[in-house]
C-alpha cells in the first residue's frame, strides 16, 4: 500500500501532472494512486523525488504497533 494519493492531495498536485513528470500514462498513475497497482521501487523513488518527499512518506507500514 502507498500514500501517493494523500501526498498529492496535501500538496495540491493533480495525477495528470505527476503522470507527465514520470512519463507514464494517467491510467498507470491512477492505478498507483488507487492502490490497484504498486510502483516498482525505482518508480517509487522517482515519485518521491518529484514530490520532494522522503520515499518513506509514500509507504504505509504493515508493522503492527
From TrEMBL:
<dbReference type="InterPro" id="IPR001387">
    <property type="entry name" value="Cro/C1-type_HTH"/>
</dbReference>
<dbReference type="InterPro" id="IPR010982">
    <property type="entry name" value="Lambda_DNA-bd_dom_sf"/>
</dbReference>
<dbReference type="Pfam" id="PF01381">
    <property type="entry name" value="HTH_3"/>
</dbReference>
<dbReference type="GO" id="GO:0003677">
    <property type="term" value="F:DNA binding"/>
</dbReference>
<feature type="domain" description="HTH cro/C1-type">
    <location>
        <begin position="4"/>
        <end position="58"/>
    </location>
</feature>
<protein>
    <submittedName>
        <fullName>Helix-turn-helix</fullName>
    </submittedName>
</protein>
